Amino acid sequence: MQASSSHEPSHLKRTLGLPSVLLFGLAYMAPLIVYGTYGVLAKASDDTAALAYLLALVAIAFTALSYGKLARLFPVAGSAYTYTRKTFNAHLGFLIGWATLLDYFFLPMVIWLIGAAYLNAAFPHVPSWIWIVAFIVLTSGLNIVGIELAARFNIVLMIVQLAIVAMFVALCWHYASAAAAPGGIAMAEPFFKPHVPLGATMAGAAIAAYSYLGFDAVSTLTEETIDPKKNMPRAILLIALIGGAIFVIAAYTMQLAHPGVEFKDTDSAAFEVAKMIGGDIFVTVFLAGLILAQFASGISAQASVGRLLYAMGRDEILPKRIFGFIHPRFKTPAINIAIAGIVGLIALKLDVATSTSFINFGAFLAFTAVNLCVIRVYLSGDHGDRRIGVTGGLVFPLIGAVSDIWLLASLEKTALVLGAVWFVLGIVYLCWITRLFRQAPPEVAI
């Protein structure tokens, strides 16, 4: 049942340096996503979006430090699932993997939902459901046929996204300066609003964490990274910090240009702001860049889901006849890709706020587990070739775990209920495949 029984080589070629890993992580995070969820975040945080991003960054930064330590101790491809399995036991590892599956499984749905919201804002006479179905059909078809995006397209896409973010920030600043009162811009206003309770900002931070998803994805490249014990911890932390700086600056300047949370459509608020600060020309450039980023991201996310489900089917965690199926002509997990597309139709009944909160449930559980893994390693005394001090092995991961749990508790109630139901289903399924925990669950080799 385990992939370790294969006689094929189990190592990958190390060719990636620190810059390449950084580029991959930032491309996975997609900087333009800060504008895709801005309206929802501004409303949830009561117009403290910049502060919400900053608070989320604190939690993510401490968690990134924990990911870095574990990537050094376990220099193999994997993430929260692998670390929990190796540090605690196979059963807890399975449950964390099950929680992480929630992110992978529903992430394409959120991407398609955000893209449809902005296309609907640009073309209001076309119903949103048509855009959602179009996204699903196109990306599913491309993924089944086996279209691959070359690395150079990721580089071009990153340059385009960063250029649009830079233009958006500059135009917001120019607009805010021109509209400022004689006393000048209220520079501290986006961060300090005495009348806004901390609970509202934390609710926003719980949504803001969605933008950071993917900072840890580079841990899956550990076996392909040169000197991973040195470069991987640096890359994970730098990706979180660079991405966080982009998000905070973007949200800050947006609040300066458009204080308040009154938008025609909360789900596509940045479209309205883009038109306000740059006119029709800039809003066209912005919309094209955002849709391109969402489309490419949707292809990658759905492809990841298909291959993750295939890995679980191949290793007989899920029914092999269905999830382990490979299309005889296209050599892709066609059934799994189609399932991901069908699940995406749930977007027809959800909004951006609920869907992002839903997948953040799994992310926060995984982040908490990673921090607890570092504490477990520190207390065990088995620190590998470099001793972990009390600050890095206990204090920082404890702060990270508490922050992640706080963000988890700040999710909206619907997301908490749906997430809890998903986790309970995972426990029931684990009981079944392990004969009431008497056997170790099979290992997923991704």
UniProtKB/TrEMBL annotation:
<feature type="transmembrane region" description="Helical">
    <location>
        <begin position="153"/>
        <end position="176"/>
    </location>
</feature>
<dbReference type="GO" id="GO:0055085">
    <property type="term" value="P:transmembrane transport"/>
</dbReference>
<keyword id="KW-1133">Transmembrane helix</keyword>
<dbReference type="Pfam" id="PF00324">
    <property type="entry name" value="AA_permease"/>
</dbReference>
<feature type="transmembrane region" description="Helical">
    <location>
        <begin position="50"/>
        <end position="71"/>
    </location>
</feature>
<feature type="transmembrane region" description="Helical">
    <location>
        <begin position="235"/>
        <end position="254"/>
    </location>
</feature>
<keyword id="KW-0812">Transmembrane</keyword>
<feature type="transmembrane region" description="Helical">
    <location>
        <begin position="415"/>
        <end position="433"/>
    </location>
</feature>
<feature type="transmembrane region" description="Helical">
    <location>
        <begin position="196"/>
        <end position="215"/>
    </location>
</feature>
<dbReference type="GO" id="GO:0016020">
    <property type="term" value="C:membrane"/>
</dbReference>
<feature type="domain" description="Amino acid permease/ SLC12A">
    <location>
        <begin position="33"/>
        <end position="372"/>
    </location>
</feature>
<protein>
    <submittedName>
        <fullName>APC family permease</fullName>
    </submittedName>
</protein>
<feature type="transmembrane region" description="Helical">
    <location>
        <begin position="281"/>
        <end position="312"/>
    </location>
</feature>
<feature type="transmembrane region" description="Helical">
    <location>
        <begin position="358"/>
        <end position="379"/>
    </location>
</feature>
<dbReference type="InterPro" id="IPR050367">
    <property type="entry name" value="APC_superfamily"/>
</dbReference>
<feature type="transmembrane region" description="Helical">
    <location>
        <begin position="126"/>
        <end position="146"/>
    </location>
</feature>
<feature type="transmembrane region" description="Helical">
    <location>
        <begin position="92"/>
        <end position="114"/>
    </location>
</feature>
<feature type="transmembrane region" description="Helical">
    <location>
        <begin position="388"/>
        <end position="409"/>
    </location>
</feature>
<dbReference type="InterPro" id="IPR004841">
    <property type="entry name" value="AA-permease/SLC12A_dom"/>
</dbReference>
<keyword id="KW-0472">Membrane</keyword>
<feature type="transmembrane region" description="Helical">
    <location>
        <begin position="333"/>
        <end position="352"/>
    </location>
</feature>
<feature type="transmembrane region" description="Helical">
    <location>
        <begin position="21"/>
        <end position="38"/>
    </location>
</feature>
